[in-house]
Structure formats: C-alpha cells, structure tokens
Protein: Molybdopterin molybdenumtransferase
Amino acid sequence: MEKKRNLYLKTMPVEEAREKYFDRIRDIIEIKRETVDVIKSLGRVTGRAVFARYSSPLFNASAMDGIAVKAEDTRGASETEPLILREDQYAVVDTGDPVKNPFDAVIMAEDIVETHEGVRITASAAPWQHIRPIGEDIVAGEMILPGSHRIRAIDIGVLLSAGITQIEVVKKPEVAIFPTGSEIIEPDGHIEEGSIIESNSRMFENMINQLGGVGHRFPPLKDDYDLILEKVSDAARRFDMVIVNAGSSAGTEDYTVHVLRELGEVIVHGVAVKPGKPVILAVVNDKPVIGLPGYPVSAYIGFENFAAPLLQMMGRRRESINETLEAHISKRLVSSLKHKEYVRVKVGRVGDKFVAAPLARGAGAAMSLVRADGFCVIDQNSEGIEAGEKAVIELYRDRREIENTAVIIGSHDLILDIIADMMPERYPGMFVSSTHVGSMGGLMSLKRGEAHMAPIHLLDEETGEYNIPYVKRLFQEPTVLIKGVGRLQGIMVKKGNPLDIKSIEKLADGRVRYVNRQRGAGTRVLFDYRLRKLGISPEDIRGYEREMTTHMAVAAAVASDSADAGMGILSAANAMDLDFIEIASEEYDFAVPERFLELSQVKAFIEIIKSDEFKKRLEEMGGYDTEGSGSIKRG
Amino acid sequence: MEKKRNLYLKTMPVEEAREKYFDRIRDIIEIKRETVDVIKSLGRVTGRAVFARYSSPLFNASAMDGIAVKAEDTRGASETEPLILREDQYAVVDTGDPVKNPFDAVIMAEDIVETHEGVRITASAAPWQHIRPIGEDIVAGEMILPGSHRIRAIDIGVLLSAGITQIEVVKKPEVAIFPTGSEIIEPDGHIEEGSIIESNSRMFENMINQLGGVGHRFPPLKDDYDLILEKVSDAARRFDMVIVNAGSSAGTEDYTVHVLRELGEVIVHGVAVKPGKPVILAVVNDKPVIGLPGYPVSAYIGFENFAAPLLQMMGRRRESINETLEAHISKRLVSSLKHKEYVRVKVGRVGDKFVAAPLARGAGAAMSLVRADGFCVIDQNSEGIEAGEKAVIELYRDRREIENTAVIIGSHDLILDIIADMMPERYPGMFVSSTHVGSMGGLMSLKRGEAHMAPIHLLDEETGEYNIPYVKRLFQEPTVLIKGVGRLQGIMVKKGNPLDIKSIEKLADGRVRYVNRQRGAGTRVLFDYRLRKLGISPEDIRGYEREMTTHMAVAAAVASDSADAGMGILSAANAMDLDFIEIASEEYDFAVPERFLELSQVKAFIEIIKSDEFKKRLEEMGGYDTEGSGSIKRG
Structure:
C-alpha cells in the first residue's frame, strides 16, 4: 500500500468528544447480568436490588450472657426485698442464644447470685429487656442492597446472614485489545534495531481488570489493512468493546481509522488533549471500538479519558475510594472514657455541608455496616460529640456517590426501597439514602438541615387534614410537599386471625399481645388518636410500651408469634403474609424545602414516583393509591 | 465441660494493644518472596528494587513523522533560499522509526515539499532535532521500581518496555480462618431455632483478599476444646496467620483464650473499643493468631484494627487511594488554548505545603508515568499556571506515602537509586523521591521550598572548595551539608577506547563526537571550568550543544555509538561497560536546611548512608569514597 498521510484537520475538546460518543453508546449498550455465588461476589455490581430471605436474628435472641425469665415473675424484686427464682423459672443463656416462650426478658449474669435455693435477683426485669427481637437487624423481605451497588466484604457477610447465597450481578464487560504495528515485538521476542517492545496492551489489560472488566489481549497484528479489518470485525461481534492500539495517528501506516470507517462509524477522530490527541472513537456492530495512540503516556491518558469511563458505564461500576471527610454530627453522641468508640454513620450532602447521622450502635447490627457510609471514631479520651459539631468521618463509600444522594429522613414505607432500587437504575450514579425515625423525627431533621426530604403521614386532629398543617406550623423557610401515595393503615394479625381481632377495642382485652411503634411515628400518632377517641387508656393495651421502628419489624414480631397484633400498612402485612384489618386511609407525602427542588437528585426522585414503572410496582404490592404522585402540594 | 465464665478484668486502649502486639510480631515475621510473571503482577508488592534490562527507546528514534537527514546537509536552507535534498540524502520516517547513521536529525512532514527533483526544505535542521535519543525514557541498568512498591498497570507497561518479564514480589500472606460455635450453621444449612448463620468468616476472607492476602476459610468448628486446639495448632504451622472467630468473649463456651494460652502466648485479651472489646492477640508457633468477637460489627472493627494493619505489614502493602490535593506548582507551566493538557508531576510535602514538580512532557516518556505521583490537568481554556500558584493534582499514589517521602532535587547519581531501594526496606512506609535537574537547579528548588535536600557537586573556582561556598552564598536560612560521597569524574568512552582519548584536549580535535550535560549540572560546571583553564572554546567541541540530563543517558549515548565521548562518573561508565579516563575526584553532598534534619524521613536517609550495607553496595559499584558519609558539614 502506498504511504499516505492521514491528517486530521480539527480536534475536539475532551468533554465534547466524550459526551458525543457516550450519547451514541448509551443507546446501544446492553447491561447483561449473571448469577454468581455471594462468597465470590466481592467487587461485583448488583444487577437488581437484593431482598432478605431470612430475618436476623432468626429468633428472639439474648443480647447478654445471663438468664432468661418471665418479666412478670420478677415483679417487686429489689435490693431490700430480693426474689429467688426457682429452676423452672429461668434458663441460662449466652449472648445470641434464643429466648423461648414463655420467657420474655433477660437478666445479666452480673446482676444475679446463684444460691442453693435458686437464683437471687435484686431488681425486676422489664418485658423484652436485653432481648434482640427477631428481625432487629434484618427483616425478611427487606431490601438489603439496591441495584448498581458495588459489593463490599461487609455486604457479603450481611447477604449470607439474610440467607442469600447466590446473587445477580452485572456481567463484566469483555474487552478485546489489539496491539498493531509491524515494528512491535513481544517483550521476550528477538530484538533488532527498530524493534519496539509491545507493552501498552498489557497496561490496558490490567487497567481493564482493575475497572471490573475482563481484558483479552491478542498477539500483535502486522500493519496489514485486511488483517486488521478481519480481526476487528470479528472481535466486534464477540466482545463488548474493542481497543485497537496505535495506528490511530496520522502516520503513513496508520490504517485504523480507515478500517473503522469501512466497518462502521467513526464518531470522533482526534481530541484536543496533550498528550493523547490521536484518539478514534467509533462504533462497529453496535459495539464501542476505541483507537488509542501508541506512545505510552498518550495511550494511558486516552484510556483514562475514554475507555475507563465507558467501562464503568457498561459495568455500572464506580471506583471505591477510602477517604475521610468532615461532617456535622446530627445528634449528640455520648461516649465513655473507657473505650474508643466506632459509631456507624450515614453521610449526606445537604446544602453546602456534609451531615453525618449516627446509626444503631449495637454490635449485632450488621445491617448498620451496610447502611452506613462510614465510621465516626470517638477517641477514648473524649466524652462524645455535641449535635452540630464537626467530626472526621472515615468513609467506606465513595464521596461522589454521597454527593449524588437524595437524603431522606422520616417515616418508613416499603416504597422507599423501591425508589432506592429504581434510582441508580434509571439515573446511573444517583442514589437514595433513607433513615427511619418516624414522621416527626423526619421534620426535625429537615429543620436542622440534615435531609433533603422528610416522608411524613401526620394527621392534624383539628382540621382532619394530613401533613400540610404540620409543615406550615414548623417551617419558616418555604417548604412544600411532594405528593407521595395514599395508603391503608390497619391492624396486622396472624394469618386466619386466630384471636378474631376486628377493631382497636379488641386490643384492650388484656389478652392480645400488642407491639407498638415508637413515639413520633405517624402510625403511633394515628393509634394514640384512635385510642383517645375511643376512650381507651394506653395502660389497657398489653405491650403498648414495646416499641419497634418500622412497619416490617412490627410485622415480623407478629409473624414470629412474639406478638399477636400491631398497627401497620397493608404492604407490610402482605410482605409477611399476615391478615389485615383496615383502620384508615392516609396520605404519605414528602416534605421538601423549595430550594431543594432544583437539585438533580430531587428532580430524579420526582420523575421516579411519577413513572409508570413505579406505579406498576406499587400495584403489585397492593394497598397504595398513586393518583397525583410526584405533584407539588403547597399549603 | 462445666459452664464457666471467663471475665477479663481490664481492657487496653487500641493503640497500646496494637503497639504491644506488633512489637512482638515484628521480630518474628519473615517476609517471603516469590517470582511471578510481570503481566500477572498487578497489585503485588516488589520484593526488591527492579532495574531496567534494556533502554527505551532501544535506538535513536524519530519523534515525528517526517524525514531523517544529516544536519550538515541542511545548512543554509531558508525561505528565500530553499534546498533540495536528493533521494540518498534522506529517509522517510514515521514516529518511533529508528534514525540510523549517518542521519542525525529529523524534519517534520509539515515542513517539507516533495518535488520531482527531491524534497524541498526551507529551514536548516539542528543536529539531533526531533530525535528521541536511545535511553531517553529508560536507560538500561537504571532503577525502575524501588522495593516495597505496589505494582500498578502503568508499572507493568514500563517493566515490559525495559525487557523485564518476570519479577520478584512479596509472597501473599496466607491466613487460616476458623469460625467456631456449636450453634452456627452454613448459609445453605438447615435452620432451626437457635441457629445462627455463619457469615463473618466470609467477610474476613474477602477483606483478606482485598488487602493482598489469601484467605483460607475452614468449615465451622463445634465448641470442643480439643478440636479447636488441634485445628489451631495445625494451622499455626501451615499458615502465616490464623483468625479464630467468636469464642473470644467471656461467654460460658468461649474456649479460644484457653486454647491459645495452652498453645502459645496471649499478648492482649480485651481492648477498650466499642463495639469490639473481646479481642485476643496471641502468638502460636511464632505466628500471629487473632481471636475476634462474634457480633458482626465487633468482628469488622476488630479485623480493621488488628488483622488489617498486620496483614499490610506482612505483605508490605498499603492501600492505594485515588484522590486529589492542592499543591504549589514548582515551575511555570505554559499550555496552549488548543488542548487540555495532562502534565505529570511529582508531589512532595515540604514544610507545611505540597509542592508539585512537573516532569518530562513528552508523550513517549513512559517512565514519567511511573515516576510521577499524579497529573496536573491544565484546562483547555487556560494558558497555563504560574510558578508558585496552587493547582489541583489528581493523585495516583497514596497521599500518606507522599507525606512520608524525602524529596530530593538536584544532581543525579546512581547512589540515589540505592537509597530509594533501601529506604522502604529498612524503614517501611518511608520513601525517597529524586528529581534530576543538576546541582544549581537543586539549590534553587531548595530555596523555593520544593525539596528537603539538594544533592550537589559544585566546585568553587576561587577557593577550590566543593559545595560549602555555594550554600553560604545562596542561603539566608541556616542550611548545612550532609556529607555524601567522594566520587570520580572522567571521560566515558567506548570499550577499548578506539579513538585513543586520554585528555580533554583530545575532545577538541573536531572528530570526536561529544555529548554534553545540561547547564547547571555539576559535571557541566566542571567541564566548562576545565575548558576555560585549557583555553579551549566550546565551539571547538563537536556536540557541545547536545545536552543530556543524567550520567546514565550520556553513558547510553556513548555505548550506542551515537557519541564517542561524554563526561560522567565512574559508576555510570561501569554500569554501561565503558572505558573511563579519570579527570577529577569530587565531593557529592546533600544540602539541607537545618530545620529538616528533625524530619523522620531525613533522619532515616542519614541512617541509610551511614549504614554498612550502603557502603558495601557502593564498593561493588566502584568509584566511590564513603568515608564520613552521613556526617553533618557546617560552613
């Protein structure tokens, strides 16, 4: 072939080239999925959201070494009037051991004295003290990981605890790499003047593997137009991406651009970057084919600018980075001078500051490792951190992910899991984080600038109106509601309703073991309101003082027969296969300061709850009304 | 066995426990090495320094597409008086093609016009223009990677370019993991009340793999004293480290601490950390054995606090982190508005600021990728960055490594490679970075606060004294010299000295092709001084204007016959198997501001050059006098 020069006339800025090329690729790439063993899934990216198969703990478990007792047997015990428990009134338990019926409390080993008559106790035990209720950490059916999540070692532990041994992940993109050039030789080849040792392809191969792809490096190809054409054409059928190295500049033997024009479409040839100008971005057989320059530094920069982000897009993977950042602690953390303490925190960027919300502090709460974005370490010499103070957070999640996360704090609903699952799927790189502190807790967080949105369902007793009166009363700054869903509240009971519970009155008969929600939860507000209206005193409800923080935890307690009834939403009852006695229809909305409506993650959030897919998924769960979801309600 | 409780009375602060345990372990662990293929070495840690087998380029190579010419044939060509080169006066070359004798310059394709008589040129070519001299990027025998360096994709490319296909790396630590507890079951096992799904060991296994070790997870062991004793005893023989999970707290069935006391020595039991108090740090058969608590969060924190840093110590590996930092640019960077530019920089922490020194900007300089700590990206809309201005650096080296690096800028000597190799070996976590800009350049960098030390060999013509007069003259701030080495300077010529060069006078005979060092280099100062003393004009030296920046590059030019002679040190001549005509004995010392003498990396540096091992290695190279090396010279 005649030597001819291949001068490109103008070059395109990097960002423009990337945008142009990626816009084209986005439409044609196909995310493939495969199933792998959880124990081999480190670093892989979840293909879909993963839901727990089992609860953890699987049973009511002792949180201490000690004895399991019936709380009512201990009533009246005190320092001055100790009680002796006979052998049939207690069972020795270690931490993690099941606490079986009829026992419903644990007394710590330190607080008992063994005598020949039995065990002496000097204080009464509160029902459910020192017991980790079934599902405290993970509730069966609960979402453990969203889709597009890169699996960490801690996630593997929690997946296994939740009974998941196999997992659907995004398939690793397979990339063919062709070194070209008649002068290049293998590193162990025979060297003569003019030889260039081929090394770029090995660098690419390793960069691809590091980015979660699979690099397939082919032996060097001679500068032969037909040979290169044949090989690239074949590879564009068999692989997800092809890299052709060298032959992308304007030298006389640089065939790559001609080959790619013949085989497909060259989107960009030459970018305004130094080093690394001679880059070719093409599409062949609906696959991305990238021509990179031969000089090692240009090759590296070209790869980093185009191949690396493309691979991440195809593999739904972002690099994970361990770093630290300073964040404002959202609630007071008291710590003892006796030890250094590791508090798991969720971190969000709200406005211009990072906010770290402490999570459950128990050592058994494995899910808190998964939910957390990092640790706040409280020094042994420190008594703690005041709310609003800054502290250093050791992140184990990517800071960029945190910056693109919609921070939701408030009332719990299963639709939050669905939104968290749909977000990164529809808007790659964006996430939802939700923390469940009840409706009032959510509004307080919003006021303190710790969240973007607060999901609430608060009935105003005076007006009979939901949510708006609370927002008006509490906020000075312009704050609106994003309409969420209408949903059914009721009493959840075991399948077949064996105690024949038909109304709230029945819960006060002294036999039904009730399990309550925590103060500030909208469900608790509703329950208390109904009790007052019916003239029933909380003392008449057995188990009123036993509080759970989510609908699913209440449902799990009923399902496992550690309670007979609890208030909750229809979807939670359905998820746990419980019967449901409808009590009220309520409005579950998202309070949001107006200035946050412009944030891209909030916009994405609104688009999701307006979408048909969202409505379809809610229909499948049952109990939701999605009319007007996503519209803005002003007071 | 009778149920008994195993109360530990006091707990130790984390840092104290770690220090106590690691002090004990440091004496017994043995760094094992193995040889692997370079293409499979990603993420591994070099066992020793790696030196180049070949130079890169392997020959004088064209840096442009164009024609290779003899510079003297082009003399006089201009716009008004163009010259025609006949077919035998040039050769068409592409970028990377060899430029063979007698050609010694390249003219770019854009600057020539092909006519039927020959090629028309309108400007003369300077000798060696647009030629990448042999060894420009890598010189055979030069150190490519120091020991204890974690291998990146870019390193693999450069290793292969330098002819290295196999590499000695630190062997991955092998860790046995034993889950224990009669109640635990496998994730796919039969679940009954009281069952706990075993998941910590899988979390550990993956954390170990991520940290560069190999996790071997054994099936769960029942709570049986003799069984646990047998398994742990056997594992402590076969593995580098053992983790026993659960059984480390004070529960009734927690045998681990008793087993470890019987088998070996328990150094720490219980640390002041929450969650994660019940940790056992022991030694069995000279191997670390760690007992970790069963609760997942405690297990995670215990692992991160003790097992993770221990593994890194054993594997000589630190986590790599990609992050950005702000640094002061040490020299003006001019960039064109035509493109975005990636400038490789070396980053150092000097005093209280980070300083980024730009490296070679050529696209062919693969070693610059290895030497660099990151990129400074100059935006397409920017004309560049002024010296001293702050710029954002995208790091691809760990920031902590950068903070523990002694930054050396100045004259080049092979002993710098030896120090860089010895530093992380003798002082794990500490590094030396050296940039070669000549003696005067080094002193200027020191003055601008860009380096900790400047290696210099500057003869004061007035006093005949080396180095001290320059330091006195240039520095206001108290600055001293760390005595380096005495070394021999001379003329390097080809083996057998075919041109019979015996003195500097001979270099002026008009036939000898000389290759010079850059202005400001001590060797250049010495050469110019001798020329003046001999009354020889630089114009009489053929090749005086051809400048190289290191001794090794000069030696490589002579060895490859692209020059006949050059000034340099004996060790460089020996490394390239050249003959050597001694000219002077000189003093090569390190200028250092007094306040830096307190820095740990400077102290470590001094200890190294005082050490017997250092002296022994210099003796092997020849040409060095190490008397008094490491002592402080004040003016």
About this structure: Chain A touches chain B through 94 residues (CB under 8 Å). DSSP finds 16 helices and 38 strands in chain A. The CA atoms of residues 64 and 95 of chain A lie 5 Å apart. The first helix of chain A runs from residue 14 to 28.
